[in-house]
């Protein structure tokens, strides 16, 4: 049975959302005071913003992956790599309380996400466009991560 691109996008959205929020939920139940005590950049948004932005981004990332999944190749490789880095960042930054290692991960994630988006664009323009808000957000996340590291370590 072959799934339509719309169904693949829907399935991808749901899978990525569940995994992403699941990881965040498990890791965030630890020492929440650690993050609150950190000195942060003036441009750091209030914590509730992250709870709004990430579910939306996970839905978009999942839809983008679903749209290119059957094409395989380099687009799928870079997509999976950036997703693995994304899912690794939260346990490292919050769980291990290691903004230094988190910074390396988020920088690698930015590179992998850019590569994924470029290759996705060759397959389906919509998939690449769905990744653009994510690219902007993780570039911003890298700046926030860098500032937290600079201000606290």
List the SSEs and their pairings.
Blueprint: H1 5-28, H2 32-37, H3 47-68, H4 73-95, H5 99-123, H6 125-152
Helix pairs in contact: 1-3, 1-4, 3-6, 4-5, 5-6
Q: Summarize the biggest pleated sheet.
A: none
Please state the oligomeric state of the protein chains shown. Answer: single chain
Q: How widely separated are the two ends? A: 54 Å
Give average pLDDT, whole number. Answer: 92
**Radius of gyration from the alpha-carbon trace, in angstroms:** 16 Å
Stretches where pLDDT falls below 50 for ≥5 residues?
none
The rough form would be described as elongated
Class inferred from helices and paired strands: mainly alpha
Task: Give the DSSP E fraction (strand runs of 2 or more residues).
Answer: under 5%
- Tally of helical runs: 6
Number of strand elements: 0
What is this structure, in a nutshell?
This protein has helices at 5-28, 32-37, 47-68, 73-95, 99-123, 125-152. The chain has 153 residues and is mainly alpha-helical.
Describe this structure in words.
With 153 residues, the protein is mostly helical. 84% of the residues lie in helices and 0% in strands. The protein has six helices and no strands. The protein has helices at residues 5-28, 32-37, 47-68, 73-95, 99-123, 125-152. Helix 3 (47-68) packs antiparallel against helix 6. It is elongated, with a radius of gyration of 16 Å. The termini are far apart.
């Amino acid at each position: 049975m072959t799934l339509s691109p719309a169904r693949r996008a829907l399935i991808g959205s749901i899978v990525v959302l569940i995994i992403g929020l699941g990881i965040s939920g498990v890791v965030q139940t630890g020492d929440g005071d650690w993050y609150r005590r950190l000195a942060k950049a003036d441009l750091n948004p209030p914590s509730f913003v992250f709870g709004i932005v990430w579910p939306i981004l996970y839905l978009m990332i999942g839809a983008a992956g679903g749209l290119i999944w059957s094409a395989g190749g380099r687009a799928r490789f870079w997509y999976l790599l950036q997703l693995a880095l994304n899912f690794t960042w939260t346990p490292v930054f919050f769980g291990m309380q290691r903004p230094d290692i988190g910074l390396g991960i988020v920088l690698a994630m930015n590179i992998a996400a850019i590569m994924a988006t470029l290759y996705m664009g060759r397959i389906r323009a919509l998939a690449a466009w769905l990744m653009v808000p994510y690219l902007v957000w993780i570039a911003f996340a890298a700046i926030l991560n860098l500032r937290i590291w600079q201000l606290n370590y």
